[in-house]
Amino acid sequence: MPQGHVSETPDDGLTTRQRRNRPLLMIHTGDGKGKSTAAFGLALRAWNQGWSTAVFQFVKSAKWRIGEQSALEQLDRAHQDSGVGGPIEWHKMGSGWSWTRRAGSDDDHAAAAAEGWREIKRRLAAEQHQFYVLDEFSYPINWGWVDLDDVVATLTQRPGNQHVIITGRRMPQELLGAADLVTGMTKIKHPFDAGQKGQRGIEW
Amino acid sequence: MPQGHVSETPDDGLTTRQRRNRPLLMIHTGDGKGKSTAAFGLALRAWNQGWSTAVFQFVKSAKWRIGEQSALEQLDRAHQDSGVGGPIEWHKMGSGWSWTRRAGSDDDHAAAAAEGWREIKRRLAAEQHQFYVLDEFSYPINWGWVDLDDVVATLTQRPGNQHVIITGRRMPQELLGAADLVTGMTKIKHPFDAGQKGQRGIEW
Hints:
Chains A, B: GO terms for molecular function: ATP binding; corrinoid adenosyltransferase activity. The first copy, chain A, is α/β, with parallel strands linked by helices. Chain A is globular, with a radius of gyration of 18 Å. Helices cover 36% and strands 17% of the residues of chain A. The first copy, chain A, has one domain (22-185): P-loop containing nucleotide triphosphate hydrolases (Rossmann fold, 3-Layer(aba) Sandwich), CATH 3.40.50.300. Chains A and B meet through α1, α2, α3 and β6 of A and α1, α2, α3 and β6 of B. β6 (181-189) of chain A pairs antiparallel with β6 of chain B, so a sheet runs across the interface.
């Protein structure tokens, strides 16, 4: 069983409890599937802990992630209605971030991505959530819409106990270096190879 | 963006719609994290489609997967109460499968695993669900508790439109061969390497 075990005790001056509760910067990368899906699976654990979760979806597509979004919004409703679990917010760039009033900002992806990152910075500084999903965040970084050095500095210096998970292909090396946990998803076999198209319930 | 695209049209006599709705056998394997988490993430999409989902958890641990279980059970409740999404059942071997009456079967893991697989076979034959998660199912197979040839034959010949996802390390080659989609999760960097212990909300 993949139970975690510790090979040595680090000389970092932290108690076991402090070390156990250390906030993590996690990355899911690689060309395979499951990067985002596993991040949303982690959000289920965060919800169950009663943590406040915020998803920032840096992709443009109406149907993309709609299944996960609906399910996590349902869990948020359960929290609002019955107090179970924690609150979950889902913000997506595609239709204009929900906290902005501008409707037409959809056309300028670079500005929208930068605005998304600024909001994440504000929330990290305010310690607004315990769990952040920055979905497909490697793309706006790689396209130069969000400054990599700013991202690395902000995330490594974030205050309090805020877990962050970033997904996406071609993750910048500096970000991999700053992360506590990096998992690579690799395509071993895919139905697209056999001419299979994406299907409802599986791909979205 | 990782949108699926088809490189060639296969000569299999199927219409695009038939091909699109082909039931998939999916596998998440490798030594990295996210194998099960991504499977439960897929269950969110299945739920959103209104599909009937059943999780069979072939691991023994009280806290293991408790976050995902609580969240998916909450989604099932939302379905029962308000008709949104689909039903989700969660069965685990650790505490004795929920459909058996025997309490003491906990001690005989081999018998419990075999009983779990028999139930899955019954449900596949009856086309009871649209989405099955066989979590950590490679272990009982590798330990000889469940017959590999029977698993491969049953899954490749399953009737109707039933999607199946199997997770676990060291997946048998015959099962990989039978699968439509195989994703490998690889550990690139892990906090356990730096003496970090598993923590609530992240590991369970």
